[in-house]
Amino acid sequence: MLIHLTRRKAIMLLLAFWGGLLVLATQPVLGNTGLIEPADSEKTTSLSERLKKRKDELKLSLGESAKQRLAGKCAASQAVVKKLKTRDAAARDKYHSAYTKMIERLEIVATKLAQQGVSTSGLANAQQLLTDSVNQYLSDAEAYRAAVDDLANMDCKGDLEGFQATLVTARSLREKLASDAALIKTSLKDVTAALAGIKNSLQAAEAGSGRTY
Amino acid sequence: MDFHKKPLKPKEDSDFTKAELTTELASVPVKQQDGEVPALANADDPEGNPIQGASVDDLGSSGEAEMDKILEVVNQKVKSTTLEDKPKRKWFAFFKRRVRPAPKEGPQPRKNRPVVAVSLAVLASLALSAAAYFAFWQNDTQKQADSSSLGSQDLTANSSVDAAAVERLSSEVQAEVDSLSDSQDFDPASLSDSSLGL
User: Residue A26 belongs to what H/E stretch?
Assistant: First the structure.
């Protein structure tokens, strides 16, 4: 049967296939939790493009002495960066898992509470702020990962200014990750406060109806 | 009527029968008013031959008048046939099944048929589809496993959420996030000049 397909039919079949793949690919990876999956910048841009962007943003100018110092030591520092990259990958997985599970659990409970007729508007607002904080962390974590990866793999002697700009960017993003994590903890406090209010209303309802779950 | 086979023998006027006259007329091309000469059709084909059925019985008895009449009848037939030929519409050919030319006799040169390429493309498409579906299914299964492990007895599909479940969720989530030591994990000193040996 397949042998008798014409070229036109085969092209239509291939188009349908790629269209289907596109539909699958554009589906939200993390369901309806509102979390984003940041794009891998290493797949969408080249190393030279990223280095140029960082240099343009920071506009660093290295003196001769700084250049000589970097040229002599940057290769050795890249070995240290590679070890740091491995540690960072483990931490990134740990944070990603903890944050996404937290958001998913809250989403499930909020949905169930709404189905039970419990008012969840306060919880929903707190949840949205928490989700935004986690999304900010995920975005910065991806940018940091790409910067450290470039730092470890680039030809540092061939582009000293690019190396320095990438190092400064990675330091800045690392500090940003710490502040993102702190903001998530703060946002979670608002969520737990909203949950405490819901718990009280549920306890009052259970006491009133004498119902036990 | 087998008029292609043998040329007519020259005969005397007395031997010229009506049947032979009809046959001879069938092979006479007639010049049209616009100057085109229609191609000769098969005389046996009633549709293709415009003078098929022109009977010599309609003619008179004597020579020249008979010929004039025959020519007139033939002319009329040819004209009417030409008028019936309407111009063909090009778009209509899209719906017509293409007729493949008859295969030539003898050994034919081997052609690169698209069949193999098409088959390979289709097989590759099927394989990729299966892979995409498998990846999607695996992702979905993983999500379901994660969801089921989230809240043990609290978050199953049919259970309702009570105050105790909300309390447990709140404390568990808080404890999990508190367990993350971000000051250590994002220590800024890790990328300092001294740490990197710069």
Answer: none
